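User: My advisor, Dr. K., asked me to get a structural model of this assembly before our group meeting. I'm new to this, so sorry if the format is off. These are the inputs:
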Amino acid sequence: MSSKAGTSGHHHHHHEATGGNSWERSYRHVRDNHRIHLEYTNRDFDSCLAHIEEALEQSEGLAEYPLYVKALIRRRQGKIQESLQLFQKATALNPANVSNLKQVGRSLMLLGKFRSSMEVLEEAKRLDPRDWEVWHDEGICNAKARSYEKAVECLERANEIQPHDTTYLALGGVHKAMSKHKRAVQAYSQGLKQSPGNPELLTACGLAYLRIDENYKAFELLLKAISVDPKNPNTILATCSMIQEHADLDTALLKYRVAAVVNPNSSQLWNNVGMCFYGKQKYIASIACLKRALTIDPFDWIVNYNLGLVHLSTGQHASAFHFMSSSINLKPEFPSSYMYLAVILSKLGDVENSRAAYNKALSLKSDYLFELNYAATLYNFDLLEESLAHFRRFEELFRDQPNNAPVEPDVPTQREALARAHGIDIE
Amino acid sequence: MVGQGLDPLWLAQSKYRRRKYQECVDICTENLHRNPYDESFWYLKCRALTAIDWLDDIELLDDTLGDQLLDENAIAQMPRPGTSMNRPATGAVGTAAGGQVRGRTGRPASGFARPSSSALRPGTSLERALGTAAGRRGTTARPVTSSGRFVRLGTASMLDHCGDEFIDSDKIDIRKYAKKPGLARALNDYMLYVDHNPKRALELCSQCTKLSDYRDWWWKERLGKCYFQLGMFRDAEKQFLSSQKNCGTVLATLDLCKVYMKMDQPLKALEAYEKSLKEHKTSVSLLLGMSRCHDSVNNFEEALSLYKRVTQLEPSNVEALACLANDHFYNDQPEIALRFYRRLLQMGVNNAEIWNNVALCCFYSSQYDMTIHCFEKALALAVDEGMADVWYNVGHVAIAIGDIGLAYQAFKIAVSVDASHAESYNNLGVLELKRGSFEQARSNFQVAERLAPELHEPKYNSALIAFDAGDYEESVEMANSALETLPGHEDSSDLLRQLEKVLSLL
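Assistant: The format is fine. Below is the predicted structure of the whole assembly, which you can bring to the meeting.
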């Protein structure tokens, strides 16, 4: 405003007049922005928008901050395209402001336009290479565009500049997507060092430990997560499935009840509840729960598999066959399904197909349990020689087991029975 | 040669009694040519023509698009729970959970395809399996208003005997006929059902009512009918009530309740039914009407107990049996449902829908060998629209046995038979998604959504796809519209919550 000052008397006079006005105007502008900011942070969006419109009208649409806040509000409302245009306007008004550029990038990302988003973020990086958010967003973009290596690089850079929980979570997620569970665990653990009480990090880390079969660690973390956030259905599901594995069914059921209120439409939840009842030998309840799981997700092979198991236990072999074959149709590469299918077929009296199923199971995986069941089935159909051969294979495999490996209680009794039948001394 | 010696009037009467209406009309026309003033022939021809075009309007409750748009009988925008059919779900709060779920997923609430009111728009969902109701989609051109429909039926029937129009109701001298009670009744029905001229019929009715000292229930009932056809529901109500006062007939009650349903006052209709039932304890039509009324406000338990009463009175009532079967099926008792369907089959009901239902019952009660046979039978009997539904169900069974290829083919066939089968498109989309072909899935959902905007599944699925693809704006939009079609849809609200989390990040 003062650039034109003092060129002439007349001008000077003019300047005085507008000068007072402009001072007033700029003061007003600060006051408006302050009010907009207050209302936005108080989530009073309606009156905030009204004030923004007022401010924009006065400045003829050339006020940066009101534009910026309006864009933020529009984005919250899901109008991302409009929000993008507003951010772009704000950027045009003040191209030197990194936060405008960052928001343009983020809006593009939310619209699924990752490549253009990354271009904008590159631009923002040129303005301020030490802004962690830019690196973080670029990492997310890369992850969504499935260039995981690049994503890891960006996210790690973001953490170098300033570590954040969200960045650690994203980093772990990228590692998980690459099936590098050990590195995911590392990322989450690092994040936990920063904020040991973050339930999301705790759950994510616990699940990652589960993937690398460190059950004890996983359990510890999940319990911690549940104590911080007792109602998160995913955490409950993960924790309970572990409790269930240790055969503490009543505790698991108690916790599932909490989860069922929050998320009644979870197929996995009903599946697990069903298997809890199965463990308690309440077959009718079990079937009801499993069928519910199946109506929620008809494509889940494991629900079909479990239904097959339950029907096998209740002696409804035809239904058991039906569910087991559905399970195999949906997931043909799971060897145990074939073993159970073989058992079911043998109960239905179909030796030929039963043998075919056993052979298929064994071709996928050599397992002492398969051999034992095969031997028992063959013995029951008076095919003694073949039965003996498979029993011998079983013995070999069973003896190779490490001593501390868990063995189902049924196996030794069946083994003794078969050994006696074949007249073999196992000891 | 045969009829030469017979008295033509007697012959015509005999034809009429044997329901050979067209032949009866021919004889009458011939004789009327000879003597245009022969009242007996005139009467008989009138009756016969009416019988040809007879429309059991007690059963018809079709709210067409135009009626909905031009509805002058404004009702409260926010009716109290359970008092309106326009938001039937509100009535179900607190009743059996099963009933509520049914109402919400949009499965057919009744197992019987009946000409139904707008509130009961049957059958549209992934779960929709039974009672494939007719008139579900507008594949045929619908008349714009219901009086339009009467007109349409009218013109269609006029074609048969155009050229010599029997009675020109606009020119006829009503006062002359009103004095002859027998002829007047025949003439009135002719004007209502054949000529579709409720205005003139109304004049005749009011004349006759006046002549009968306002005591004749029949004329009042017909007067109400005229008002109903003219869309003057309040006047119709008055006439039916007054007719009931003269003589408490079932007919007047049924008419009255039809008016109440049309005015969206199901509770009042129930009251009227209740009152009339005290007099006519064994009237099946009253009981059926009442249970339909309960159905329309999602009060399924009441409806079912009434259907049971109907079966006790009339063990071969198709509607009651079908509804009971439907209920048992959805309450996870397919074996019992199967017994009802078997009964229906024994009674001689033999169509694609019933075999389809039997197949589903067999499947869910684990009688797999029967399932395929029944579906084959259903397909052999099915015509276009029904066929698509049958294939749709085959697809579901295929999913249940894990045969995704067969499911895919079944849905494809359903779509090829009936290109507007939105549910099949939706399921095709889901299968495409399972196969990993993203674009195909998306386009399938879009088609489903365009064909049936009242389905929430394709919208939710589109929202999910958009969410996974990272297009959050589209996702918000679709999730919101899914919630609009089905308020309280758990998964959509869940998705929106997730979206909000992402969007409110700075």
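One thing worth pointing out at the meeting: DSSP finds 23 helices and no strands in chain A.

User: Perfect, thanks a lot.
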